[in-house]
UniProtKB/TrEMBL annotation:
GO terms for molecular function: efflux transmembrane transporter activity. Residues 210-283 form the CusB-like beta-barrel domain. This is Efflux RND transporter periplasmic adaptor subunit. The chain crosses the membrane at residues 7-25. It comes from the Bacteria. Residues 59-196 form the Multidrug resistance protein MdtA-like barrel-sandwich hybrid domain. It comes from Pedobacter hiemivivus. GO terms for cellular component: efflux pump complex. Residues 377-399 are annotated as: Disordered. PANTHER family: MULTIDRUG RESISTANCE PROTEIN MDTA, SLR1207 PROTEIN. Residues 100-166 form the Multidrug resistance protein MdtA-like alpha-helical hairpin domain.
């Protein structure tokens, strides 16, 4: 009986040891599941992002060419004005007095011309008769010509005085809207060394432009005519559209960051956009419709030791493309076979990649692998969310 009990104890220990080994110590065989996708047909773009300011297409600074006191102002901020409309007037008292003075001087000079002309004709007749000398004749001619010259000089001064009088009235040079008024009635305007700005007038607020500051790393991808969208803080739910009109060559440098001003024209018929608004801009540097697309992570996938049950057919084990337009993906050819394929790539926005050749839409592309019941297997090569991307884009056409 005791012997039988000993045998049962030994058997129990063996069963317990086997259970511990099987469920705890034994190395479990990993079951790896491949994530695969077929290429899709869709839209892809490579985008450039920037910030900028909304400004009128054309703004005119209206100034004064003469000095004086502002006597009248006829417009204010936001006033709509027409070309030739009177905006303000300077005190014209001194200008009018100068005009009157030169008019009197000119009348006197013209009377002198008449007198000297008659005197010259008399002296000329006497000279022909030999009654006066050649010196007297020359003196009469000189006096007559001098009177004419003096009258012409006074006439020019009168024109200048009349021009200054007309400049005392400030007129609008364009049709537009007054954005700024920097003067008040009674204020003195001094135009001795430079022209003071009195008004700022925007030509047409129904057509605006965005002055985008584009980084030097991105400006090489831009071309005139490419479309752009932007938002402003005042209307976060609205997306405004525009096109690149100009890429200015003059750089702007701030804190060692070089940017280039890119002008984007946009329609503002609804008058929502106001001058000076901050715009968050997306420029579509490259766009393709009906492109063959695969997830960008498919190009990063590399088989590892967890896929020992698969037959691997290599094209390039080094996996180093010889050109930026080349890449490699893995296709699942059967239940236990993976084949590496060399592809030609186009736009890569870090989410999807445009395929130009090498595979078809019927191929099954491996984009990653997972251990059954666990996370991603080694070699899935997921990108870090903390690494900033140079481009931002979406595989869906923005609205």
């Amino acid at each position: 009986m005791k012997k039988k009990k000993t045998i049962f104890i030994i058997l129990g220990v063996l069963v317990l040891g086997f259970a511990i080994w099987y469920f705890g110590i034994r190395k479990k065989e990993l079951v790896v599941k491949l994530d695969t996708e077929k290429p899709t047909i869709g839209y892809i773009s490579e985008n450039v992002t920037a910030t900028g300011r909304v400004e009128p297409m054309d703004t005119v600074m209206v100034g004064s060419q003469v000095s004086g006191n502002i006597s009248k102002i006829y417009v204010d901020f936001n006033s709509t004005v027409k070309k030739g409309q009177l905006l303000a007037e300077l005190d014209k008292t001194l200008f009018q007095a100068s005009v009157d003075q030169f008019k009197g001087s000119l009348a006197n000079a013209q009377s002198l011309i008449v007198f000297q002309k008659g005197n010259f004709h008399r002296q000329s007749e006497l000279y022909k008769l030999g009654a006066i000398s050649k010196a007297d004749y020359d003196n009469a001619l000189y006096t007559y010509n001098s009177a004419i010259t003096s009258a012409n000089s006074i006439k020019a001064q009168l024109v200048s005085a009349q021009k200054n009088l007309s400049l005392a009235s400030i007129y609008s040079p364009i049709d537009g809207t007054v954005l700024a008024r920097s003067i008040s009635e009674g204020q003195t305007v001094a135009a001795s060394f430079n022209t003071p700005t009195l008004f700022s007038i925007a030509k047409d607020l129904t057509k605006m432009q965005v002055e985008a500051a584009v980084d030097e790393a991105d400006v090489g991808d831009l071309k005139i005519g490419e479309r752009a969208t932007f938002t402003v803080d005042a209307f976060l739910d609205d997306t405004f559209k525009g096109d690149i009109q100009e890429i200015r060559l003059r750089p702007s440098i701030a804190s060692n960051v070089v940017t280039y001003t890119t002008i984007i024209k946009t329609d503002n018929s609804d008058q929502k956009l106001k001058p000076g608004m901050t715009a968050n801009i997306t420029i579509f540097a490259k766009e393709v419709n009906n492109a063959l697309l695969v997830p960008a992570k498919a190009l990063k996938f590399m088989p590892d030791t967890t896929l020992k049950n698969y037959q691997l057919v290599w094209v390039n084990k080094a996996r180093k493309p010889s050109a930026p337009t080349e890449g490699y993906v893995w296709l699942k050819m059967g239940d236990h076979k993976l084949e590496q394929k060399k592809i030609q790539v186009g736009i890569n926005n870090n989410t999807q990649v445009e395929i130009l050749g090498g595979i078809t839409k019927n191929d099954l592309v491996v984009v990653g692998s997972k251990v059954a019941g666990g996370g991603a297997a080694a070699g899935a090569a997921a990108s870090s969310p903390f690494m900033p991307a140079r481009r931002s884009g979406s595989s869906n056409r923005p609205r």
